[in-house]
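User: Please predict the structure of the protein below. I'd like the answer in structure-token form so I can feed it into my own downstream comparison script.

Assistant: Understood. Taking the following sequence of 696 residues as input:
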Amino acid sequence: MIRLEKYLRPQSVAVIGASRKEGSLGKMFLDAVLRMHYKGKIYLINPKADQISGIACFPNITALPEIPDVAVILLPYQIVPESMTELGEAGIRNIIVISAGFKEIGGEGIDREKHLLKIAEKYNLNILGPNCMGLFNTDPAISFNGTFSPTLPSPGHVAFISQSGALGVGILELAAGTDLGFSVFVSTGNKADITDADVLEFLYHDNNTKVITFYLESIDNPSAFRKICSKISAVKPLLAVKAGRTASGLKAASSHTGALANPDHIVDGFLKQCGVIRCDTLEDVFDSARALSLQPLPAGPRTAVITNAGGPGILASDALEKADLKLAVLSETTVNKLKSFLPQEAATGNPIDMIASANHQTYHDVLEVVLNDEGVDSIVLIMVKPPVNATPAMIVDHIKSLVHNSGKTIIPVLMATKDETAGLDIFEELQLPVFSYPEAAVKSLGVMRQYAKIQQRFRKSEAIVAHPEMEETLLANTGEQVSTGELFELLTHYDLAVAPYLVTENIEDLIKFSEQQPGKIVLKIANEQIIHKSDAGLVALNIDSESLLKQAYKQLSERSFPLLPSGTQPLFLAQKQLLGGIELVIGGKKDPVFGPVLMVGFGGIFVEVLKDVSFRIAPVNAFEAREMISELRSQALLNGFRGNPAVDLNSFAYAIQRFGLLLSEHPEITEMDLNPLIWDSESGHPVVVDVRATLA
């Protein structure tokens, strides 16, 4: 069942709190509904009025002639619970609570919102909000504007989900008069009941929506969110701005809706797993949404830049690499054709600078030649208002047939006054998104290319291969560090390579182990009460004789006694010492919102000082594991550096997968680190040499 179906396609709406008073929320809301020419029935609840704006009023819910699809509450927070109870008893199931004064203010507001949820549970109600702006659907068959925005939305194919209602008003204001048109808008507010995932389920099925955009302050129910996003990403692009990149931003986001703040590095990895493109600004989101909703996806990264001015062409070319695009290499045939009619001063490479004398015919002829070049996937078409007898309107009118017959991506840049000579109506007719600056155009083209790759990935997404779960969880020592021996057994069960080891208190056992190992061994204190063994001088390397082993045994015993609880004997971990390969780290931590969070990086200074790490939510598939590796800034070290053997990336990715599965199948683990893993060129695997874990 799609929960938002009746919200966004209602046949009848009840407005509780409709008002005659100009400037009041109840009057603004009703005016917005009427201005959009809503096709359904409107029922106004106001015991003090006979009619408002020519629509009859009813004294209460029970006086209505039918049960409306949706009820909108525009009342002070003190009266909201009573109103919801009346709605529930009347059999109305879908409610929008515009009213504020709940979880977002903290304290008593949290209790008030919990009370609303109890009422909802009792009467099986759906709640959008509270503390929201409402929603709208511009589908001509519906034309429902259930918001109090003073600006009517322009119809289009971009959906916008916003946790901030006021931001929705602002975006509608900014979009007015541009080529950005909306299909659906939903203000989720505090998300007490209906969440982003519920809205996404509707948008997945909505044929009028081509692109989905978000403003997020928190992510609730990550599992449901990821599930629906993974489904949508194969057919529709998802673009988001997630507030709270900084500590102050996190604090502000949390106080705005009362939601639990999500650490940015976790959010970043999670959105990538969902197929959501995270943008830095709202401007980037809606610039890219315009392009995605109007133009076909580029088939590849090869881009041609056509311009009548050198500077903007150079700026566009510079921006391509940053956007993961590249200048197309024009074929010899294309270059020769361009040379045959362009002035000698023109540049016929890429970017193609037609110089200032280019008119509407020049633009047509150059665009025609470049569109026919098989080595070109997309075109950035720059128009600086020409000094010759030509206008942007003349230019775009002259290229109509080329645009209609081309399947390639064309992104125009209009560096001219947006007056009657700009031809904006013709650009709109041709579904060409107009940009004012070349860098913004290229950035949006890069997002289009990014989505093309996401779409391919989710259409043939790799499955997460499950592993037979262990019959027992790690319940021993709950709330404390787990013993090294238990952890090594667990890692082995998940097919993670562990250096040959022995855990014992006995020196005779250690001597026997040492004799069985070719080469040197390492001796460490293994008591779980001591975490940072190296810092405490409790690791001895390069042991290759019985005398060195006994000496290390004595030294570590003496150093460990003061650090251990009274009466506890030192426990020793002996391991085969691996030849110096590159050090890696894989770790995990249980997040209160997202669950098991997986971290991958380089060991040593790279993780401690440079923070060169990547994050995802466990479990991960093979693609996601390889993607994590590709995000490491120092990844070139994996190819072999200063005598270190090269790392097999598939083997490393496999280890990441296995550890992610371990985390997801053992929710009792709150924190776990494999640090370091050392790349062993002999076995072709990253080998765990140290591990620690804490249980809930």
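That's the full token string. The domain at 296-459 is CATH 3.40.50.261 (Rossmann fold).
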